[in-house]
Amino acid sequence: MIRAHAALSVSPVTLGGVVRRGEVDPARVRVAVLAVSEWLRDESAPPPARTELAEAVRGTARTLAAAAPGGSVEVRVPPFVAVQCIEGPRHTRGTPPNVVETDPRTWLLLATGLLDYATAVESAALTISGIRAGELAHWLPLIPL
Fold first, then answer.
1. Is the peptide bond before 79 cis (omega within 30 degrees of 0)?
2. Do 77 and 103 meet the contact criterion of CB atoms below 8 Å apart?
3. Distances 128 to 3, 27, 55, 68, 135 between C-alpha atoms, Å
4. Fewer CB within 10 Å: C terminus or N terminus of the chain?
5. Which tens digit of pLDDT belongs to each residue from 80-104?
């Protein structure tokens, strides 16, 4: 949990008031997550607009990359984002040996603490490969709801 709060304190690097690609604006990420929170809590609620969903997914994934910098694990949330994170051996070509992949809703449930890592893996909502992929659980949740 301490690291989750550290992720939220990452200072954005701005150019003309706009956050650059890959940088994290904690307030903006929180707003994006709150915009989709009703749908996360209740799957029968109307789904968010694609732009809202994309912003929440990208923001939380980039928050993870900022909180757990490194290149040993690749987190994929198609079609919105893929980030590398967690210190260790860096991967540079081909398919990484340590991959975590899921759909946008499952990712946001994990990022907010509404779903735990083990349950997501057991239900096959989260696919993992490689011995380091399990280390992601240590960094979740990112933005508890």
1. yes
2. yes
3. 22, 30, 24, 18, 11
4. N
5. 999 999 998 776 676 778 999 999 9
Q: Is the dihedral of CA 120, 124, 127, 131 positive or negative?
A: positive
The pTM of this model reads: 0.83
State the pairing for strand pair 18-19/14-15. Answer: antiparallel
Give the model's confidence band at 141: pLDDT under 50 very low, under 70 low, under 90 confident, else very high: very high
- Find out whether 144 and 112 touch, Cβ atoms under 8 Å: yes
Question: If you average pLDDT over residues 50-55, what whole number do you get?
Answer: 98
Domain 2-139, CATH 3.30.1050.40 — does that match? yes
Q: Alpha carbon of 114 to those of 57, 72, 130, 134, 145: distances in Å?
A: 15, 26, 25, 18, 7
